[in-house]
Amino acid sequence: MSYHNCPHCGIQLKSFEPLVCGNVRIDAPGHISYRSNPLELAPTQFIIAEALIRANGRGLERSTLVNLIDEDLNETTITQYVKRLREAFKTLDPKFKQIQCLRGFGAYRWVPAEG
């Protein structure tokens, strides 16, 4: 995300930047496509997917994802959200394995599709 100041009040605002990462594309907040097929995700699933994709292969701890969602969640709930997110991608590709669990770190990462 890039930042700019509101011309009226000067408050710092975030600008959405579209993202393409291999076989996934995020065109706008809440709009994601996988292998050129639109994917319907719940808002929380979208937040997690976008965070993992934007992390560019780096692991994100569950606690980081909890903070992004900005709800009163625990880390076990994040595990369930990630499970549902994987299932959503598997509706388009039953062999989907681009979300990896980094065992021992309590983290997840997005693995870009191979060429």
Helix content: 25-40%
In angstroms, what separates the terminal alpha carbons?
26 Å
**Uncertain ranges:** none
Overall pLDDT, averaged?
87
Radius of gyration: 15 Å
Q: Which structural class matches the secondary elements?
A: alpha+beta
Morphology call:
globular
Largest sheet descriptor:
4 strands, antiparallel
Give the strand content. 25-35%
> What spatial order of strands do you see in the largest sheet?
3-4-5-6
Helix segment tally: 3
Oligomer: single chain
Topology as H/E string?
EEEEEEHEHHEE
Annotation, overall tally of beta strands: 9
Describe the structure.
There is one protein chain. With 115 residues, this protein is α+β, with helices and mostly antiparallel strands. 31% of the residues lie in helices and 29% in strands. The chain contains three helices and nine strands. It has helices spanning 43-54, 62-69, 75-90; strands at 2-5, 12-15, 19-21, 24-28, 31-34, 37-39, 60-61, 99-102, 107-110. The strands form three sheets. Strands 3-4-5-6 form a four-stranded antiparallel sheet, with helices on one face. It has a three-stranded antiparallel sheet with strand order 7-9-8. Helix 1 packs across helix 3 (75-90) and helix 2 packs across helix 3. The longest helix is centred in the last third of the chain and has 16 residues, at 75-90. The two termini are 26 Å apart. The model has no long low-confidence stretch (mean pLDDT 87).
